[in-house]
Amino acid sequence: MYDVIGDIHGYADELEALLRGLGYEQRNGTYQHPTRTAIFVGDLIDRHPEGQLRTIDIVRRMVDAGSAKIVLGNHEFNAVAYATEHPSGGYCRAHKEKNLKQHRAF
Question: If we measure between CA atoms, which residue out of 72, 1, 10 comes closest to residue 41?
Answer without folding.
Answer: 72
